[in-house]
């Protein structure tokens, strides 16, 4: 009996301790969720696989009950957690001040920009003078001289008293554009202002602008009040050089009205050649053949080569080979015709020849001279336009170094023109009576 009573007392004690341990376990689990702590490894072995304490385990220790814990925490754990629940967010805001609508002016009008009259132009015989007000846009904002240019040419002066900037240049300067109409020569410039930021700041208070400046001149008229001198060349004529001229050469039929459809010739034939310049809107021009070279390939510097016109228009082939080559009398200012007797290069590898010529053009109003002429040899030198005295230098050296004067006004244009290949063949030979 004594043994059974001891076992019963032990079971009661174990049951009481199980209830206390279960309450302590729930308290520690809630505390660990709010502040994690690492539990000793030895305590983990006291729980069985089902989560209950095993009092018969060798390393199990009975928990010690602390009565002070119940005094400090009189409320239950569930009631404490309800007090620490989420707080309702605040929905209070600052009061909004109502916006007062302002009345707009009933008679307001947007100011429209006006076209300023701030650029003045004066065109002289060979120069253009431009004055620009510093208040270029008539808005009280002065422009910076460094931002103003005319075709890339800067300001050359400033009149502080009148508040203007000055640009003055020759008509051919500042990237001017020359246009020719039926009655006028027109020089056009671009006056450009690019805003410049104020010193030490990245800002500007003016706009950019481009103003067209033009000078008009009557064609072939002297714009000054002085009388024309006989040797004076009108400025309108000399400026034609800025446009591109097209020089060309063509093979022609015997009537000189149509181009020859074939480039094949035989020895003894005459090759008709026309040299011309396209005039378009230019003043009338007269064309000359300055020199010509024949080669077997297009390269004018190749060997063999034969120069048959040289010394500024002297057709030397007739004098050197006693051929019939010559210039025809001139009938057109923008064309010159000449005939070349067909030939072949001795020992040449090809029957083809290439002809390259330097062609010049002068004002039709200027007479021929030692540098611009068309001379043929036939018992002496003769000019195609009848001015035979200009051919006197063909046996020496033509030009200023030969004692001849330069062309009047010194105005001429030149370019290259070529023909080829021109095929020259031999006649077929037959011997009569040969079986």
From TrEMBL:
It comes from the Eukaryota. The keyword Kinase does not apply. GO terms for molecular function: acrosin binding; structural constituent of egg coat. Keywords: Cell membrane, Cleavage on pair of basic residues, Disulfide bond, Extracellular matrix, Glycoprotein, Membrane, Secreted, Signal, Transmembrane, Transmembrane helix, Viral envelope protein, Virion. Gene3D superfamilies: Zona pellucida, ZP-C domain, Zona pellucida, ZP-N domain. The keyword Metal-binding does not apply. Residues 27-47 are annotated as: Disordered. Its main location: secreted. GO terms for biological process: binding of sperm to zona pellucida; egg coat formation; positive regulation of acrosome reaction. Proteolytically cleaved before the transmembrane segment to yield the secreted ectodomain incorporated in the zona pellucida. Pfam families: Zona_pellucida, ZP-N. It is found in: Secreted, Extracellular space, Extracellular matrix; Zona pellucida; Cell membrane. Residues 30-40 have a biased composition (Polar residues). GO terms for cellular component: egg coat; plasma membrane. It is a single-pass type I membrane protein. InterPro entries: ZP-C, ZP-C_dom, ZP-N, ZP_dom. Residues 122-382 form the ZP domain. Residues 1-23 form the signal peptide. Component of the zona pellucida, an extracellular matrix surrounding oocytes which mediates sperm binding, induction of the acrosome reaction and prevents post-fertilization polyspermy. The zona pellucida is composed of 3 to 4 glycoproteins, ZP1, ZP2, ZP3, and ZP4. ZP3 is essential for sperm binding and zona matrix formation. Belongs to the ZP domain family. ZPC subfamily. The ZP domain is involved in the polymerization of the ZP proteins to form the zona pellucida. This is Zona pellucida sperm-binding protein 3. It comes from Carassius gibelio (Prussian carp).
């Amino acid at each position: 009996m004594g043994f059974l009573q001891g076992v019963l007392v032990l079971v009661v004690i174990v049951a009481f301790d199980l209830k206390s341990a279960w309450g302590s376990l729930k308290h520690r689990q809630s505390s660990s969720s709010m502040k994690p702590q690492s539990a000793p490894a030895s305590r983990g072995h006291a729980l069985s696989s089902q989560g209950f304490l095993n009092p018969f385990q060798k390393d199990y220790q009975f928990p010690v009950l602390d009565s002070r814990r119940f005094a400090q925490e009189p409320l239950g754990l569930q009631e404490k957690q309800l007090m620490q629940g989420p707080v309702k967010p605040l929905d209070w805001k600052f009061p909004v001040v109502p916006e007062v609508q302002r009345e707009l002016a009933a008679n307001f009008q947007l100011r429209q920009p006006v076209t300023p009259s701030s650029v003045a132009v004066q065109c002289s015989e060979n120069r253009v003078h431009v004055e620009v007000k510093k208040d270029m846009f008539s808005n009280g904002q002065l422009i910076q001289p460094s931002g103003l240019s005319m075709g890339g040419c800067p300001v050359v002066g400033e009149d502080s008293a009148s508040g203007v900037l000055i640009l003055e240049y020759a008509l051919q300067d500042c990237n001017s554009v020359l246009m020719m109409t039926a009655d006028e020569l027109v020089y056009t410039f671009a006056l450009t202002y690019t805003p410049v930021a104020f010193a030490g700041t990245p800002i500007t208070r003016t706009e950019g602008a481009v103003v067209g400046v033009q000078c008009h001149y009557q064609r072939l008229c002297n714009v000054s009040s002085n009388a024309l001198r006989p040797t004076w060349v009108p400025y309108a004529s000399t400026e034609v050089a800025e446009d591109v001229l097209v020089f060309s050469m063509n093979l022609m039929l015997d009537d000189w009205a149509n181009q020859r459809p074939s480039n094949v010739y035989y020895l003894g034939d005459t090759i008709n050649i026309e040299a011309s310049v396209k005039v378009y809107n230019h003043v009338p021009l007269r064309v000359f053949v300055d020199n010509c070279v024949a080669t077997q390939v297009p390269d004018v510097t190749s060997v063999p080569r034969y120069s048959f016109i040289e010394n500024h228009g002297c057709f030397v082939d007739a004098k050197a080979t006693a051929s019939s080559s010559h210039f025809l009398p001139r009938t057109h200012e923008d064309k010159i015709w000449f005939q070349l007797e067909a030939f072949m290069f001795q020992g040449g590898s090809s029957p083809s020849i290439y002809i390259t010529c330097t062609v010049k053009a002068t004002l039709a109003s200027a007479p021929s001279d030692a540098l611009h002429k068309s001379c043929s040899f036939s018992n002496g030198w003769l000019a195609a336009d009848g001015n035979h005295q200009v051919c006197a230098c063909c046996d020496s050296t033509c030009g200023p170094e030969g004692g001849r004067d330069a062309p009047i006004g010194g105005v001429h244009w030149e370019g290259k023109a070529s023909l080829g290949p021109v095929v020259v063949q031999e006649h077929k030979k037959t011997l009569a009576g040969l079986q």
